[in-house]
């Protein structure tokens, strides 16, 4: 099978189930941004080279593929779709709480940076927020993606805490925000 089909050459694409939509449809924007986040998580994993975190990130990447399949489907009861559950979000909350026990309390806003992997984790967080905004828009139209909105919201929180956790693991310094003073 060839990778190119030429069926999208005029700006359209097919959803799981065959329905044709424009490539700038909010649904395509939603799962495209989730896919972009997935690619950024892959880069983060490659930068880290930490076996334990790599495994956790790969699980998240698989969950994002699950979510993408839901966003690409006309029928949320399609037998090919993997299950989406509240447990996915609860797992993130447990991981956040676990990492936070190993971190100093946050006393100021911090700037993205300190190391390449910390900066990349912040890129993941901001792309996750964009994916969440796109799915919120889609959910307003179709009202069936609440679990995905909640998961993406929590995932961005997880990625913020993960950036701090990576900073601690690497021994890199968190960079505090210093507001510009009025002159």
Word description of this protein:
Helix 3 packs parallel to helix 5. Strands 1-2 form a two-stranded antiparallel ribbon. Strands 3-4 form a two-stranded antiparallel sheet. The N and C termini lie far apart (65 Å). It has one domain: Hypothetical Protein Ta1238, Chain: A (Up-down Bundle). The protein has 5 helices and 4 strands; from the N terminus they run ββαααβααβ. Strand 1 and strand 2 form a beta hairpin. By secondary structure, it is mainly alpha-helical. The model has no long low-confidence stretch (mean pLDDT 90). 28% of the residues are buried.
Write a concise keyword list for the protein shown above.
mainly alpha, globular, Hypothetical Protein Ta1238, Chain: A, 183 residues, two-stranded antiparallel sheet
Task: Give the structure's gist in a few sentences.
Helix content is 61%, strand content 5%. The chain has five helices and four strands. The chain has a two-stranded antiparallel ribbon with strand order 1-2.
Looking at how many chains there are and whether they match, the oligomeric state comes to single chain
- What gap, in angstroms, lies between the N and C termini? 65 Å
Instruction: Could you tell me the CATH topology label.
Output: Hypothetical Protein Ta1238, Chain: A
Strand order of the largest sheet: 1-2
- Total helix count? 5
Q: Using only CA atoms, what is the Rg?
A: 18 Å
Helix share, percent:
55-70%
- Shape, please? globular
Task: Tell me the name of the CATH homologous superfamily.
Answer: Cobalamin adenosyltransferase-like
Count of spatially separate domains: 1
The overall pLDDT average reads 90
Specify the structural class: mainly alpha
Tell me the fraction of residues in β-strands, as a range. Answer: 5-15%
> What is the number of E strands?
4
| Largest beta-sheet characterization | 2 strands, antiparallel
Give the second-level CATH assignment, the architecture. Up-down Bundle
Detail the poorly predicted runs: none
